[in-house]
Amino acid sequence: xxxxxxxxxxxxxxxxxxIVNAANxxxxxxxxxxxxxxxxxxxxxxxxxxxxxxxxxGDAKITQGYHLPARHVIHTVGPVWRDGKHQEHxxxxxxxxxxxxxxxxxxxxxxxxxxxxxGAYRFPKDQAARIAVATVSKxxxxxxxxxxxxxxxxxxxxxxxxxxxxxxxxxxxxx
Length: 175
Ligand code: AR6
What we know:
CATH class: Alpha Beta
Bound molecules: ligand AR6
CATH topology: Leucine Aminopeptidase, subunit E, domain 1
Shape: globular
Number of helices: 5
Number of domains: 1
Strand order of the largest sheet: 1-6-5-2-4-3
CATH superfamily: Leucine Aminopeptidase, subunit E, domain 1
Order of helices and strands: EEHHEEHEHEH
Largest sheet: 6 strands, mixed
Distance between the termini: 17 Å
Low-confidence stretches: none
């Protein structure tokens, strides 16, 4: 059975070991999925984030999930898209890889990701989806302890993109 799933919906409603937050370097909250996670988790989350001292782009840090159904939040900071020539691809890969490494270090088995950097940070959605699927597939081979990764797409267009990419990658595994 595949260890990668896709869903359309709100990541704050998902009961997994950790949901990933598309945060900014301050880790002090923002709009988009970050705002939704902070609201659903309650003020204790921001309080814990204040003690983390921020997070560089491409890296990830973990907190508790507080009032979320998820036990933890892994906060990662995606790159702001400029023109594709400023390490955006590498930094986005690094977000997915570092989030899974942090999950592994904390013995977590089920992780849900939003489409990092594709909202306020304007990373082209098709390129971001390719990087997400390719990086997670590669990392899962190296981290057998992680049982399930769910890509949670807020809108149907993203869901369709991931669906197409996963179908393609299944075909290439079979052939
Ligand atoms: N569940 C799942 N996905 C969501 C949700 C949700 N509840 N809400 C939005 N999305 P963005 P970024 C999707 O802008 O581009 C914040 O202010 C959304 O449709 O949240 O990495 C941070 O503090 C999009 O596909 O994150 C940073 O300053 C995806 O989440 C900055 O925005 C990411 O959009 C980070 O920008």
